[in-house]
Amino acid sequence: MELIRARFATDEETKSFYKFLNSKQNDKNDFTKKWLKTNGSKFIELHQRFYDEFNQSAKDKAWDKHYERWNKWNEDVNYFERRKREIGRCICGRSEGLYQVGSILMIGCSNYREQGYNHTKIYEPVNEPIYQDVDVKLSANYLNDLKIFYELPKELKQSILVDYLLVNNIELLTNVEQKLSVTNGVREKSKKREDLFKSFLEEKFVKLYHQKIIIAKFTDTTKTHFIPDFIGVTDNSIYLIEQKKNAGLINQEQTQRYLLALEYIKKETKSDKDLKLLYLVEEGANDLYNNILNFKNINDYEFN
Ligand SMILES: [Zn+2]
Fold first, then answer.
1. pLDDT band at 289, cuts 50/70/90?
2. Is pLDDT of 288 > 60?
3. Is 159 in the same domain as 194?
4. Is the pLDDT at 24 greater than 70, yes or no?
5. Which helix (H) or strand (E) segment is 293 a member of?
6. Residues 285 and 191 in one domain
7. Residue 83 lies inside a defined structural domain of this protein
8. How many domains are there within the chain?
9. What predicted TM-score, i.e. pTM, was given to this entire model?
10. Are 285 and 208 within one domain?
11. Distance from the CA of 74 to the center of ligand 1, in angstroms?
């Protein structure tokens, strides 16, 4: 990883970058809503048929597989029966015989010990394949399976499909809502945590940047936008602060890129402040070591 250049994004660039990120989400929402306008009743109809047809298709596949295995087995049985009637000579020239091996029969060569020949060795086929019935269990992701099964556009957004079904009084086939609300809950919680950290950090620094975009080019990646959680400036230092739920989530390589980019920007702007790194974690790391600080101890920490 080698840095080619780095700078902070301008306000204009920042605005358009976030707009770009949001637009991707909005495009998906708009597409789904528009699609439902013309295909809504078809979607509901497919949804009502889905379990039976999906399940049936799984059964059909299982039957096909079973049929294939059974055919193969049947062929083996017929072959064995025919060879039993026509016991003759092995490729080595010696006579074949019918032997009992454990509980099954085998057609083999009386001269099987002599090396250099591929002697006759045919076992009686046993264990007739038995069909095992399958029943599909739908997951909380079943709307994705439905999209694939009926070849619906993959851009359709699950949360909007769910809303549409609920608004139309259609019962969901599994607990999708719970899964969606858990996902949203996690997102909300991390946003709250970030706001809390921000308000604490703001008191510690002359200047605090939250998610300031760095535009940087490294030789080994096409990625150009880098967004550290916080950059705090004191009279003597510039702090790169990465916020993590726990120390295990620390991504050293990513942090290394941020540091290199900040070092570059520092040189460009002829700043003589020290560049420091701090990981702020929510869980674990009660003692301060290796730049890892538990958020609980932030008031005892000296930023200088
Ligand atoms: Zn032989």
1. low
2. no
3. no
4. yes
5. strand 292-294
6. yes
7. yes
8. 2
9. 0.56
10. yes
11. 26
State whether 237 and 147 are in the same domain.
Answer: no
Read off the amino acid at residue 83.
R
Determine phi and psi for 49, rounding to 5 degrees: -90, -15
Average pLDDT over residues 242-266: 89
CA of 107 to the centre of ligand 1 (A): 11
Question: Do the beta carbons of residue 293 and residue 37 sit within 8 Å?
Answer: no
Examine residue 54 and state whether it is found in any structural domain, yes or no: yes
Measure the CA angle with vertex 210, ends 205 and 216; round to 5°. Answer: 115
Same domain, 168 and 199: no
Phi-psi map region of 285: left, alpha, beta (phi>0 left; psi -120 to 50 alpha): left
Distance of CA 177 from the midpoint of ligand 1 (Å): 68
Q: Indicate the helix (H) or strand (E) that contains 133.
A: none
- For residue 79, report the distance from its CA to the centre of ligand 1, in Å: 19
The pLDDT, as a whole number, for residue 22 is: 82
**According to the model, what pLDDT value does residue 97 have?**
95
Same domain, 115 and 220: no
Phi, psi of 158 (to 5 degrees): -55, -45
In this structure, are 292 and 198 located in the same domain?
A: yes
What's the pLDDT at 140? 86
CA of 116 to the centre of ligand 1 (A): 10
Give CA torsion, residues 215, 218, 220, 221, to 10 deg.
Answer: 0
Domain-terminating residue out of 174, 195, 230: 174
The residue segments making up the domain with residue 262 are: 186-300
Using the mean position of ligand 1's atoms as its centre, give its distance from the Cα of residue 78 in Å: 22
Q: Are residues 272 and 199 in the same domain?
A: yes
Cβ atoms of 266 and 238 within 8 Å: the answer is: yes
